[in-house]
Amino acid sequence: MSVVRLIKGFWKDKYDLNRDVTMEAVWNRFCDTGRIGAFLFEWEEGKENRPDVYWDSDVAKWMEAAAYLLGKEKIPQVRERLEWLIDQIEKHQEPCGYFNLYFQMAEPQNRFTKQDAHELYCAGHLIEAAVAYYESCGEKRFLELMRKYADYIYEVFYVQKSASFCVPGHEEIELSLLRLYRATKEKRYLDLSMYFLNTRGTLPPNDKQRQNHLPVRKQQTAEGHCVRALYLYAAMADAALETRDDELSEACRNLFSDMITHKMYLTGGIGSTYTGECFTENYDLPNETAYAETCAAIAVILFCERMFKLEHSSRYADLAELELYNGMLAGLSLDGKAFFYENPLEITLAKRIQYDEGMVKLLGKVRLPITQRKEVFDCSCCPPNLNRMLASLERLLYSVEGRNVYIHQFADSEMEGDGIYVRVRTEYPISGKVEVVSRGADSVFIRIPGWCRNFSIDQEYTMEQGYAKVSEDGFAVEFDMMPEYVMANENVWDDADKIAVMRGPVVYCAEGIDHADALHKLYIDTKEIPQFEENAYFGIPVLKVNGYARRTGQGLYERWSNCMEKAQITLIPYCGFANRGESDMRVWLHFIA
Question: Is 64 a catalytic residue?
Fold first, then answer.
Protein backbone atom coordinates (compact mmCIF):
# COMPACT_ATOMS: atom_id res chain seq x y z
CA MET A 1 0.00 0.00 0.00
CA SER A 2 1.31 3.44 -0.97
CA VAL A 3 1.70 6.34 1.43
CA VAL A 4 1.32 9.88 0.11
CA ARG A 5 2.53 12.98 1.95
CA LEU A 6 1.83 16.61 1.14
CA ILE A 7 5.06 18.55 1.64
CA LYS A 8 4.22 22.21 1.06
CA GLY A 9 2.31 24.55 -1.20
CA PHE A 10 -1.33 25.33 -1.90
CA TRP A 11 -2.94 22.04 -0.91
CA LYS A 12 -0.66 21.51 2.10
CA ASP A 13 -1.86 24.89 3.34
CA LYS A 14 -5.49 23.86 2.87
CA TYR A 15 -4.83 20.53 4.60
CA ASP A 16 -3.25 22.32 7.57
CA LEU A 17 -6.09 24.85 7.73
CA ASN A 18 -8.61 22.02 7.86
CA ARG A 19 -6.67 20.17 10.57
CA ASP A 20 -5.97 23.23 12.72
CA VAL A 21 -9.07 25.38 12.22
CA THR A 22 -11.94 23.84 10.26
CA MET A 23 -12.18 20.59 12.22
CA GLU A 24 -12.44 22.59 15.46
CA ALA A 25 -14.92 25.05 13.95
CA VAL A 26 -17.26 22.29 12.79
CA TRP A 27 -17.00 20.41 16.10
CA ASN A 28 -17.83 23.54 18.09
CA ARG A 29 -20.87 24.40 16.00
CA PHE A 30 -22.05 20.80 16.22
CA CYS A 31 -21.78 21.12 20.00
CA ASP A 32 -23.73 24.40 19.93
CA THR A 33 -26.56 22.92 17.87
CA GLY A 34 -26.93 19.75 19.93
CA ARG A 35 -25.53 17.31 17.38
CA ILE A 36 -22.70 16.11 19.63
CA GLY A 37 -24.79 16.10 22.80
CA ALA A 38 -27.41 13.97 21.06
CA PHE A 39 -25.01 11.01 21.26
CA LEU A 40 -25.66 10.93 25.04
CA PHE A 41 -29.25 9.91 24.21
CA GLU A 42 -30.68 12.24 26.86
CA TRP A 43 -33.08 14.11 24.61
CA GLU A 44 -36.82 13.84 25.38
CA GLU A 45 -39.91 15.47 23.89
CA GLY A 46 -40.17 19.08 25.02
CA LYS A 47 -36.42 19.62 25.31
CA GLU A 48 -34.36 21.88 23.03
CA ASN A 49 -32.28 20.61 20.12
CA ARG A 50 -34.60 17.92 18.91
CA PRO A 51 -32.47 15.55 16.78
CA ASP A 52 -33.02 15.74 13.07
CA VAL A 53 -33.00 12.83 10.65
CA TYR A 54 -29.61 13.73 9.15
CA TRP A 55 -27.65 14.51 12.34
CA ASP A 56 -25.87 11.14 12.39
CA SER A 57 -24.50 11.79 8.91
CA ASP A 58 -23.20 15.27 9.80
CA VAL A 59 -21.22 13.93 12.74
CA ALA A 60 -20.16 10.76 10.89
CA LYS A 61 -18.44 12.81 8.19
CA TRP A 62 -16.50 14.67 10.88
CA MET A 63 -15.56 11.26 12.34
CA GLU A 64 -14.36 10.08 8.94
CA ALA A 65 -12.20 13.20 8.60
CA ALA A 66 -10.79 12.58 12.08
CA ALA A 67 -9.86 9.03 11.07
CA TYR A 68 -7.90 10.24 8.03
CA LEU A 69 -6.02 12.83 10.09
CA LEU A 70 -5.17 10.36 12.85
CA GLY A 71 -3.80 7.97 10.27
CA LYS A 72 -1.10 10.52 9.47
CA GLU A 73 -0.28 12.18 12.80
CA LYS A 74 -1.07 12.20 16.50
CA ILE A 75 -3.74 14.73 17.43
CA PRO A 76 -4.80 13.83 20.99
CA GLN A 77 -7.89 16.02 21.16
CA VAL A 78 -9.25 14.69 17.86
CA ARG A 79 -8.65 11.08 18.93
CA GLU A 80 -10.31 11.72 22.29
CA ARG A 81 -13.40 13.16 20.62
CA LEU A 82 -13.59 10.38 18.05
CA GLU A 83 -13.26 7.68 20.71
CA TRP A 84 -15.90 9.39 22.87
CA LEU A 85 -18.36 9.28 19.97
CA ILE A 86 -17.58 5.61 19.37
CA ASP A 87 -18.12 4.98 23.10
CA GLN A 88 -21.60 6.49 22.84
CA ILE A 89 -22.44 4.48 19.73
CA GLU A 90 -21.34 1.28 21.48
CA LYS A 91 -23.33 2.17 24.59
CA HIS A 92 -26.58 3.03 22.80
CA GLN A 93 -26.54 0.66 19.83
CA GLU A 94 -29.43 -1.77 20.10
CA PRO A 95 -28.68 -5.51 20.49
CA CYS A 96 -29.82 -6.12 16.91
CA GLY A 97 -27.23 -3.59 15.68
CA TYR A 98 -29.54 -0.66 14.92
CA PHE A 99 -28.27 2.85 15.65
CA ASN A 100 -29.93 6.14 14.74
CA LEU A 101 -30.19 9.27 16.86
CA TYR A 102 -33.52 10.43 15.50
CA PHE A 103 -35.45 7.19 15.31
CA GLN A 104 -34.23 5.77 18.59
CA MET A 105 -35.22 8.92 20.48
CA ALA A 106 -37.95 10.68 18.48
CA GLU A 107 -39.84 8.05 16.44
CA PRO A 108 -38.87 4.55 17.60
CA GLN A 109 -42.13 3.16 16.21
CA ASN A 110 -41.32 4.32 12.66
CA ARG A 111 -37.99 2.62 12.02
CA PHE A 112 -37.49 1.84 8.30
CA THR A 113 -40.94 3.17 7.34
CA LYS A 114 -39.98 6.54 5.81
CA GLN A 115 -37.92 6.40 2.64
CA ASP A 116 -36.81 10.03 2.80
CA ALA A 117 -35.91 10.02 6.49
CA HIS A 118 -32.21 9.40 5.82
CA GLU A 119 -31.82 6.26 7.95
CA LEU A 120 -29.76 4.38 5.38
CA TYR A 121 -27.95 7.57 4.38
CA CYS A 122 -26.88 8.07 8.01
CA ALA A 123 -25.94 4.41 8.33
CA GLY A 124 -23.80 4.71 5.21
CA HIS A 125 -21.79 7.63 6.53
CA LEU A 126 -21.24 5.89 9.86
CA ILE A 127 -20.02 2.80 7.99
CA GLU A 128 -17.64 4.90 5.86
CA ALA A 129 -16.23 6.52 9.01
CA ALA A 130 -15.69 3.11 10.61
CA VAL A 131 -13.92 1.75 7.52
CA ALA A 132 -11.77 4.89 7.34
CA TYR A 133 -10.70 4.48 10.99
CA TYR A 134 -9.87 0.83 10.41
CA GLU A 135 -7.92 1.45 7.21
CA SER A 136 -6.12 4.55 8.50
CA CYS A 137 -5.33 3.45 12.05
CA GLY A 138 -6.07 -0.28 12.27
CA GLU A 139 -8.85 0.35 14.81
CA LYS A 140 -11.46 -2.44 14.75
CA ARG A 141 -13.97 -1.53 17.48
CA PHE A 142 -15.93 1.00 15.40
CA LEU A 143 -15.73 -1.30 12.40
CA GLU A 144 -17.28 -4.19 14.35
CA LEU A 145 -20.09 -1.96 15.60
CA MET A 146 -20.93 -0.92 12.06
CA ARG A 147 -20.64 -4.48 10.75
CA LYS A 148 -23.28 -5.40 13.27
CA TYR A 149 -25.47 -2.56 11.96
CA ALA A 150 -24.84 -3.56 8.35
CA ASP A 151 -25.75 -7.16 9.17
CA TYR A 152 -29.05 -5.96 10.60
CA ILE A 153 -29.78 -3.88 7.48
CA TYR A 154 -28.92 -6.94 5.36
CA GLU A 155 -31.42 -9.03 7.34
CA VAL A 156 -34.23 -6.43 7.10
CA PHE A 157 -33.81 -5.36 3.48
CA TYR A 158 -32.25 -8.35 1.72
CA VAL A 159 -33.45 -11.41 3.64
CA GLN A 160 -36.78 -10.50 5.23
CA LYS A 161 -37.64 -7.57 2.92
CA SER A 162 -39.70 -6.29 5.84
CA ALA A 163 -38.98 -2.55 5.53
CA SER A 164 -41.63 -0.22 4.09
CA PHE A 165 -39.32 0.71 1.19
CA CYS A 166 -36.76 -1.11 -0.92
CA VAL A 167 -34.16 1.53 -1.70
CA PRO A 168 -33.03 4.60 0.27
CA GLY A 169 -34.38 8.02 -0.60
CA HIS A 170 -30.88 9.49 -0.37
CA GLU A 171 -28.13 7.35 -1.86
CA GLU A 172 -24.93 6.76 0.11
CA ILE A 173 -25.20 3.36 1.75
CA GLU A 174 -24.43 1.74 -1.61
CA LEU A 175 -20.98 3.35 -1.57
CA SER A 176 -20.33 2.49 2.05
CA LEU A 177 -21.26 -1.17 1.66
CA LEU A 178 -18.77 -1.54 -1.17
CA ARG A 179 -16.08 -0.03 1.07
CA LEU A 180 -17.11 -2.36 3.88
CA TYR A 181 -16.94 -5.34 1.52
CA ARG A 182 -13.42 -4.45 0.44
CA ALA A 183 -12.32 -4.00 4.05
CA THR A 184 -13.84 -7.24 5.37
CA LYS A 185 -14.20 -9.50 2.28
CA GLU A 186 -17.73 -10.38 3.50
CA LYS A 187 -19.73 -10.97 0.33
CA ARG A 188 -23.09 -10.13 1.93
CA TYR A 189 -22.11 -6.44 1.93
CA LEU A 190 -21.45 -6.55 -1.81
CA ASP A 191 -24.75 -8.43 -2.30
CA LEU A 192 -26.68 -5.82 -0.32
CA SER A 193 -25.10 -2.93 -2.21
CA MET A 194 -25.91 -4.59 -5.53
CA TYR A 195 -29.46 -5.26 -4.32
CA PHE A 196 -30.00 -1.55 -3.65
CA LEU A 197 -28.48 -0.64 -7.03
CA ASN A 198 -30.35 -3.29 -9.02
CA THR A 199 -33.69 -2.57 -7.35
CA ARG A 200 -33.59 1.18 -7.95
CA GLY A 201 -35.94 2.25 -10.71
CA THR A 202 -37.76 -1.08 -10.87
CA LEU A 203 -40.53 -0.28 -8.37
CA PRO A 204 -42.76 2.76 -7.85
CA PRO A 205 -42.67 5.60 -7.06
CA ASN A 206 -40.86 6.17 -10.36
CA ASP A 207 -39.62 9.69 -9.64
CA LYS A 208 -36.49 11.44 -10.87
CA GLN A 209 -35.86 13.10 -7.50
CA ARG A 210 -34.64 9.81 -6.04
CA GLN A 211 -33.18 8.58 -9.37
CA ASN A 212 -36.01 6.02 -9.41
CA HIS A 213 -37.24 6.85 -12.90
CA LEU A 214 -35.29 4.04 -14.61
CA PRO A 215 -33.17 1.03 -13.62
CA VAL A 216 -29.57 2.14 -13.17
CA ARG A 217 -28.29 0.46 -16.35
CA LYS A 218 -30.94 2.28 -18.41
CA GLN A 219 -30.19 5.74 -17.05
CA GLN A 220 -28.60 7.89 -19.75
CA THR A 221 -29.14 11.47 -18.52
CA ALA A 222 -28.32 13.13 -15.20
CA GLU A 223 -31.65 13.71 -13.45
CA GLY A 224 -33.07 14.74 -10.10
CA HIS A 225 -31.38 15.68 -6.84
CA CYS A 226 -27.71 16.32 -7.66
CA VAL A 227 -25.99 14.98 -4.55
CA ARG A 228 -28.16 11.87 -4.49
CA ALA A 229 -27.51 11.35 -8.19
CA LEU A 230 -23.72 11.65 -7.95
CA TYR A 231 -23.52 9.40 -4.90
CA LEU A 232 -25.51 6.89 -6.93
CA TYR A 233 -23.28 7.27 -9.99
CA ALA A 234 -20.16 6.88 -7.83
CA ALA A 235 -21.59 3.67 -6.40
CA MET A 236 -22.48 2.45 -9.89
CA ALA A 237 -18.90 3.03 -11.04
CA ASP A 238 -17.55 1.31 -7.93
CA ALA A 239 -19.85 -1.66 -8.47
CA ALA A 240 -18.99 -1.85 -12.17
CA LEU A 241 -15.31 -2.07 -11.27
CA GLU A 242 -15.95 -4.73 -8.64
CA THR A 243 -18.23 -6.93 -10.76
CA ARG A 244 -16.79 -6.18 -14.23
CA ASP A 245 -20.25 -5.13 -15.38
CA ASP A 246 -19.81 -3.57 -18.84
CA GLU A 247 -23.42 -2.39 -19.06
CA LEU A 248 -23.11 -0.56 -15.76
CA SER A 249 -19.81 0.97 -16.91
CA GLU A 250 -21.43 2.23 -20.10
CA ALA A 251 -24.28 3.80 -18.12
CA CYS A 252 -21.71 5.63 -15.99
CA ARG A 253 -19.93 6.96 -19.08
CA ASN A 254 -23.21 8.20 -20.54
CA LEU A 255 -24.22 9.90 -17.31
CA PHE A 256 -20.82 11.56 -17.02
CA SER A 257 -20.98 12.82 -20.60
CA ASP A 258 -24.51 14.19 -20.24
CA MET A 259 -23.58 16.03 -17.06
CA ILE A 260 -20.45 17.75 -18.40
CA THR A 261 -21.98 18.47 -21.83
CA HIS A 262 -25.33 19.90 -20.79
CA LYS A 263 -25.72 20.52 -17.05
CA MET A 264 -22.53 21.78 -15.43
CA TYR A 265 -21.39 25.27 -14.58
CA LEU A 266 -17.96 26.53 -15.61
CA THR A 267 -16.90 26.17 -11.96
CA GLY A 268 -17.88 22.48 -11.94
CA GLY A 269 -21.03 23.33 -10.00
CA ILE A 270 -24.10 21.17 -10.59
CA GLY A 271 -27.68 21.84 -9.64
CA SER A 272 -29.47 24.70 -11.37
CA THR A 273 -32.26 25.25 -8.87
CA TYR A 274 -33.02 25.34 -5.17
CA THR A 275 -36.27 23.51 -5.92
CA GLY A 276 -35.34 19.89 -5.29
CA GLU A 277 -31.61 20.80 -5.46
CA CYS A 278 -31.86 19.36 -8.95
CA PHE A 279 -30.53 19.11 -12.42
CA THR A 280 -33.00 20.83 -14.76
CA GLU A 281 -33.11 21.13 -18.56
CA ASN A 282 -30.11 21.11 -20.84
CA TYR A 283 -28.27 24.46 -20.82
CA ASP A 284 -30.43 25.85 -17.98
CA LEU A 285 -27.54 27.32 -15.99
CA PRO A 286 -28.69 30.56 -14.32
CA ASN A 287 -25.82 32.28 -12.56
CA GLU A 288 -27.51 34.27 -9.81
CA THR A 289 -29.81 31.50 -8.62
CA ALA A 290 -27.35 28.64 -9.13
CA TYR A 291 -27.60 26.00 -6.44
CA ALA A 292 -24.22 24.37 -7.12
CA GLU A 293 -24.06 22.77 -3.69
CA THR A 294 -20.65 22.21 -2.14
CA CYS A 295 -21.58 18.60 -1.37
CA ALA A 296 -22.44 18.10 -5.04
CA ALA A 297 -18.94 19.24 -6.07
CA ILE A 298 -17.47 16.73 -3.63
CA ALA A 299 -19.78 14.03 -4.98
CA VAL A 300 -18.52 14.75 -8.51
CA ILE A 301 -14.95 14.22 -7.26
CA LEU A 302 -15.98 10.87 -5.77
CA PHE A 303 -17.52 9.87 -9.11
CA CYS A 304 -14.42 10.96 -11.06
CA GLU A 305 -12.11 9.11 -8.69
CA ARG A 306 -13.96 5.87 -9.42
CA MET A 307 -14.41 6.46 -13.14
CA PHE A 308 -10.64 6.69 -13.62
CA LYS A 309 -10.32 3.19 -12.18
CA LEU A 310 -12.74 1.99 -14.86
CA GLU A 311 -10.86 3.66 -17.70
CA HIS A 312 -7.60 5.60 -17.46
CA SER A 313 -8.79 8.75 -19.19
CA SER A 314 -7.52 12.16 -18.10
CA ARG A 315 -10.97 13.71 -18.42
CA TYR A 316 -11.92 12.37 -15.00
CA ALA A 317 -8.90 13.89 -13.27
CA ASP A 318 -9.50 17.10 -15.28
CA LEU A 319 -12.98 17.42 -13.82
CA ALA A 320 -11.81 16.49 -10.32
CA GLU A 321 -9.24 19.30 -10.59
CA LEU A 322 -11.88 21.79 -11.70
CA GLU A 323 -14.03 20.86 -8.70
CA LEU A 324 -11.14 21.03 -6.26
CA TYR A 325 -10.09 24.56 -7.16
CA ASN A 326 -13.54 25.99 -7.82
CA GLY A 327 -16.81 24.19 -7.10
CA MET A 328 -15.60 22.60 -3.86
CA LEU A 329 -13.19 25.18 -2.48
CA ALA A 330 -15.67 28.04 -2.88
CA GLY A 331 -17.61 26.36 -0.08
CA LEU A 332 -14.94 27.24 2.51
CA SER A 333 -13.95 30.70 3.76
CA LEU A 334 -10.30 31.65 3.59
CA ASP A 335 -10.08 31.61 7.40
CA GLY A 336 -11.47 28.06 7.48
CA LYS A 337 -14.38 28.83 9.81
CA ALA A 338 -17.40 29.47 7.57
CA PHE A 339 -19.11 27.79 4.65
CA PHE A 340 -21.33 28.13 1.62
CA TYR A 341 -23.96 25.48 1.04
CA GLU A 342 -24.76 26.99 -2.36
CA ASN A 343 -22.23 28.63 -4.67
CA PRO A 344 -23.74 31.17 -7.09
CA LEU A 345 -21.81 32.54 -10.05
CA GLU A 346 -23.28 36.02 -9.68
CA ILE A 347 -24.38 38.29 -6.83
CA THR A 348 -26.16 41.61 -7.30
CA LEU A 349 -26.79 43.12 -3.90
CA ALA A 350 -29.31 45.67 -5.21
CA LYS A 351 -31.70 42.85 -6.09
CA ARG A 352 -31.82 41.84 -2.45
CA ILE A 353 -33.04 45.17 -1.08
CA GLN A 354 -36.58 45.22 0.32
CA TYR A 355 -37.91 48.56 -0.90
CA ASP A 356 -40.98 48.68 1.32
CA GLU A 357 -42.09 46.79 4.39
CA GLY A 358 -43.95 43.65 3.39
CA MET A 359 -42.93 43.90 -0.24
CA VAL A 360 -41.09 41.04 -1.91
CA LYS A 361 -37.54 41.35 -3.16
CA LEU A 362 -37.04 42.60 -6.68
CA LEU A 363 -36.75 39.06 -7.99
CA GLY A 364 -40.16 38.16 -6.56
CA LYS A 365 -40.36 34.62 -5.23
CA VAL A 366 -37.08 33.45 -6.72
CA ARG A 367 -34.84 32.25 -3.89
CA LEU A 368 -31.36 33.77 -3.89
CA PRO A 369 -28.32 32.17 -2.26
CA ILE A 370 -26.76 33.92 0.73
CA THR A 371 -23.96 36.44 0.15
CA GLN A 372 -21.74 35.52 3.11
CA ARG A 373 -20.65 32.13 4.39
CA LYS A 374 -22.19 30.80 7.61
CA GLU A 375 -20.57 28.80 10.40
CA VAL A 376 -23.37 26.21 10.53
CA PHE A 377 -26.62 25.39 8.74
CA ASP A 378 -29.80 23.65 9.85
CA CYS A 379 -28.82 20.93 7.37
CA SER A 380 -25.06 21.17 7.84
CA CYS A 381 -23.86 18.46 5.47
CA CYS A 382 -21.31 20.56 3.57
CA PRO A 383 -18.94 21.63 6.38
CA PRO A 384 -18.00 18.09 7.53
CA ASN A 385 -17.94 16.94 3.91
CA LEU A 386 -15.19 19.52 3.36
CA ASN A 387 -13.51 18.19 6.51
CA ARG A 388 -13.30 14.66 5.14
CA MET A 389 -12.27 15.68 1.62
CA LEU A 390 -9.50 18.03 2.76
CA ALA A 391 -8.29 15.44 5.31
CA SER A 392 -7.84 12.85 2.55
CA LEU A 393 -6.75 15.01 -0.41
CA GLU A 394 -3.58 13.03 -0.98
CA ARG A 395 -5.51 10.02 -2.26
CA LEU A 396 -6.41 12.04 -5.38
CA LEU A 397 -2.81 12.80 -6.32
CA TYR A 398 -1.44 9.42 -7.45
CA SER A 399 -2.41 5.90 -8.34
CA VAL A 400 -0.27 2.82 -9.01
CA GLU A 401 -0.95 0.17 -11.65
CA GLY A 402 1.59 -2.64 -11.38
CA ARG A 403 4.94 -0.85 -11.59
CA ASN A 404 3.48 2.23 -13.29
CA VAL A 405 2.62 5.43 -11.42
CA TYR A 406 -0.07 7.91 -12.48
CA ILE A 407 0.16 11.54 -11.36
CA HIS A 408 -3.37 12.93 -11.49
CA GLN A 409 -3.18 16.17 -9.49
CA PHE A 410 -0.21 18.45 -8.98
CA ALA A 411 0.92 19.22 -5.44
CA ASP A 412 4.30 19.38 -3.80
CA SER A 413 4.31 15.86 -2.39
CA GLU A 414 5.81 12.39 -2.30
CA MET A 415 4.45 8.88 -2.76
CA GLU A 416 6.12 5.74 -1.45
CA GLY A 417 5.17 2.07 -1.30
CA ASP A 418 5.91 -1.40 -2.70
CA GLY A 419 9.41 -0.39 -3.73
CA ILE A 420 8.26 2.69 -5.66
CA TYR A 421 9.06 6.27 -4.72
CA VAL A 422 7.93 9.46 -6.47
CA ARG A 423 8.70 13.04 -5.47
CA VAL A 424 6.86 15.94 -7.09
CA ARG A 425 8.08 19.51 -6.64
CA THR A 426 5.82 22.31 -7.80
CA GLU A 427 4.27 25.67 -6.93
CA TYR A 428 1.16 24.81 -8.93
CA PRO A 429 -1.26 26.51 -9.53
CA ILE A 430 0.87 29.64 -9.12
CA SER A 431 3.36 28.19 -11.59
CA GLY A 432 2.87 25.60 -14.31
CA LYS A 433 6.22 23.91 -13.70
CA VAL A 434 6.17 20.37 -12.22
CA GLU A 435 9.40 18.47 -11.49
CA VAL A 436 9.24 14.69 -10.95
CA VAL A 437 11.81 12.26 -9.57
CA SER A 438 10.99 8.55 -9.33
CA ARG A 439 12.61 5.30 -8.22
CA GLY A 440 11.42 1.75 -8.80
CA ALA A 441 8.70 2.63 -11.35
CA ASP A 442 8.72 1.29 -14.90
CA SER A 443 7.01 4.45 -16.17
CA VAL A 444 5.39 7.59 -14.80
CA PHE A 445 2.18 8.79 -16.43
CA ILE A 446 1.58 12.49 -15.80
CA ARG A 447 -1.72 14.13 -16.73
CA ILE A 448 -1.66 16.84 -19.36
CA PRO A 449 -4.64 18.97 -18.32
CA GLY A 450 -7.43 19.48 -20.81
CA TRP A 451 -7.24 23.25 -20.29
CA CYS A 452 -3.54 23.31 -21.34
CA ARG A 453 -2.88 24.48 -24.89
CA ASN A 454 0.91 24.16 -24.79
CA PHE A 455 3.31 22.19 -22.62
CA SER A 456 6.88 20.94 -22.68
CA ILE A 457 8.61 17.89 -21.20
CA ASP A 458 12.39 17.66 -21.04
CA GLN A 459 12.44 13.89 -21.71
CA GLU A 460 11.01 11.65 -24.39
CA TYR A 461 7.38 10.73 -23.89
CA THR A 462 4.33 9.24 -25.54
CA MET A 463 0.69 10.19 -24.97
CA GLU A 464 -1.93 7.74 -23.68
CA GLN A 465 -5.50 8.93 -22.95
CA GLY A 466 -4.40 12.39 -21.87
CA TYR A 467 -1.34 11.27 -19.88
CA ALA A 468 2.27 11.70 -20.93
CA LYS A 469 4.17 8.44 -20.38
CA VAL A 470 7.78 9.02 -19.32
CA SER A 471 10.22 6.18 -18.65
CA GLU A 472 13.07 8.28 -17.23
CA ASP A 473 13.66 8.56 -13.47
CA GLY A 474 13.59 12.33 -13.55
CA PHE A 475 11.83 14.88 -15.76
CA ALA A 476 10.23 18.30 -15.72
CA VAL A 477 6.93 19.36 -17.24
CA GLU A 478 5.86 22.93 -17.81
CA PHE A 479 2.27 23.86 -18.58
CA ASP A 480 1.48 27.15 -20.28
CA MET A 481 -0.55 29.07 -17.67
CA MET A 482 -1.49 31.97 -19.93
CA PRO A 483 -4.95 33.24 -18.88
CA GLU A 484 -7.70 32.39 -21.34
CA TYR A 485 -11.10 33.80 -22.23
CA VAL A 486 -13.91 31.27 -22.16
CA MET A 487 -17.35 31.38 -23.73
CA ALA A 488 -20.39 29.24 -23.06
CA ASN A 489 -22.30 27.14 -25.56
CA GLU A 490 -24.63 29.27 -27.66
CA ASN A 491 -27.63 27.57 -26.02
CA VAL A 492 -26.74 28.77 -22.49
CA TRP A 493 -28.97 31.82 -22.55
CA ASP A 494 -27.72 33.26 -19.25
CA ASP A 495 -24.17 33.60 -20.63
CA ALA A 496 -25.00 35.01 -24.06
CA ASP A 497 -22.63 37.82 -25.10
CA LYS A 498 -20.44 37.27 -22.05
CA ILE A 499 -17.06 35.72 -21.34
CA ALA A 500 -15.28 34.32 -18.32
CA VAL A 501 -11.57 34.11 -17.52
CA MET A 502 -9.55 31.07 -16.46
CA ARG A 503 -5.89 30.63 -15.64
CA GLY A 504 -4.99 26.97 -15.57
CA PRO A 505 -7.72 25.18 -13.61
CA VAL A 506 -8.80 28.32 -11.76
CA VAL A 507 -12.00 30.18 -12.67
CA TYR A 508 -11.93 33.93 -11.96
CA CYS A 509 -14.61 36.43 -10.99
CA ALA A 510 -14.93 40.16 -10.45
CA GLU A 511 -16.10 41.62 -7.15
CA GLY A 512 -17.63 45.04 -6.65
CA ILE A 513 -15.25 45.81 -3.79
CA ASP A 514 -12.39 46.15 -6.31
CA HIS A 515 -14.20 48.51 -8.71
CA ALA A 516 -15.60 52.02 -8.66
CA ASP A 517 -18.16 51.04 -11.27
CA ALA A 518 -20.91 48.48 -10.86
CA LEU A 519 -19.97 45.19 -12.47
CA HIS A 520 -22.78 45.30 -15.05
CA LYS A 521 -21.11 48.37 -16.58
CA LEU A 522 -17.75 46.67 -17.14
CA TYR A 523 -16.54 45.24 -20.46
CA ILE A 524 -13.37 43.21 -20.88
CA ASP A 525 -11.28 44.06 -23.92
CA THR A 526 -10.48 40.62 -25.35
CA LYS A 527 -7.55 42.07 -27.33
CA GLU A 528 -5.81 42.56 -23.98
CA ILE A 529 -3.98 39.73 -22.19
CA PRO A 530 -4.77 39.55 -18.45
CA GLN A 531 -1.69 40.07 -16.32
CA PHE A 532 -1.29 38.09 -13.11
CA GLU A 533 -0.01 39.22 -9.73
CA GLU A 534 0.88 36.87 -6.91
CA ASN A 535 -1.44 37.33 -3.97
CA ALA A 536 -0.84 35.87 -0.51
CA TYR A 537 -4.40 36.60 0.65
CA PHE A 538 -6.01 34.25 -1.87
CA GLY A 539 -3.01 31.94 -2.27
CA ILE A 540 -3.62 32.08 -6.05
CA PRO A 541 -2.64 34.95 -8.36
CA VAL A 542 -5.03 37.84 -9.01
CA LEU A 543 -5.53 38.99 -12.62
CA LYS A 544 -5.70 42.54 -13.98
CA VAL A 545 -7.07 43.22 -17.44
CA ASN A 546 -7.82 46.41 -19.34
CA GLY A 547 -11.38 47.07 -20.37
CA TYR A 548 -14.09 49.68 -20.40
CA ALA A 549 -16.97 51.03 -18.40
CA ARG A 550 -20.10 52.00 -20.29
CA ARG A 551 -21.20 55.62 -19.94
CA THR A 552 -24.55 57.28 -20.66
CA GLY A 553 -26.12 60.68 -20.14
CA GLN A 554 -28.39 61.61 -17.25
CA GLY A 555 -31.65 60.62 -18.90
CA LEU A 556 -33.37 57.39 -17.99
CA TYR A 557 -33.56 56.57 -21.71
CA GLU A 558 -31.75 58.20 -24.61
CA ARG A 559 -30.56 57.62 -28.15
CA TRP A 560 -27.92 54.87 -28.30
CA SER A 561 -24.29 55.85 -28.44
CA ASN A 562 -21.16 53.78 -27.97
CA CYS A 563 -19.67 55.79 -25.13
CA MET A 564 -17.00 53.84 -23.27
CA GLU A 565 -14.40 54.92 -20.74
CA LYS A 566 -11.21 52.98 -20.14
CA ALA A 567 -11.16 50.97 -16.92
CA GLN A 568 -8.98 48.32 -15.36
CA ILE A 569 -10.78 45.18 -14.26
CA THR A 570 -9.53 43.11 -11.32
CA LEU A 571 -10.31 39.40 -11.25
CA ILE A 572 -9.90 37.21 -8.19
CA PRO A 573 -10.05 33.40 -7.91
CA TYR A 574 -13.71 32.37 -7.79
CA CYS A 575 -13.03 30.20 -4.74
CA GLY A 576 -12.06 33.36 -2.84
CA PHE A 577 -15.18 35.44 -3.42
CA ALA A 578 -17.24 36.78 -0.48
CA ASN A 579 -14.32 36.86 1.96
CA ARG A 580 -13.99 40.66 2.19
CA GLY A 581 -17.55 41.59 3.10
CA GLU A 582 -20.74 41.75 1.07
CA SER A 583 -20.11 42.65 -2.54
CA ASP A 584 -21.47 42.23 -6.03
CA MET A 585 -19.78 39.37 -7.88
CA ARG A 586 -19.78 38.03 -11.43
CA VAL A 587 -18.00 35.19 -13.20
CA TRP A 588 -19.46 36.04 -16.61
CA LEU A 589 -18.74 39.59 -17.84
CA HIS A 590 -19.53 41.65 -20.92
CA PHE A 591 -16.76 42.00 -23.48
CA ILE A 592 -15.55 43.93 -26.48
CA ALA A 593 -13.93 41.89 -29.23
Answer: no
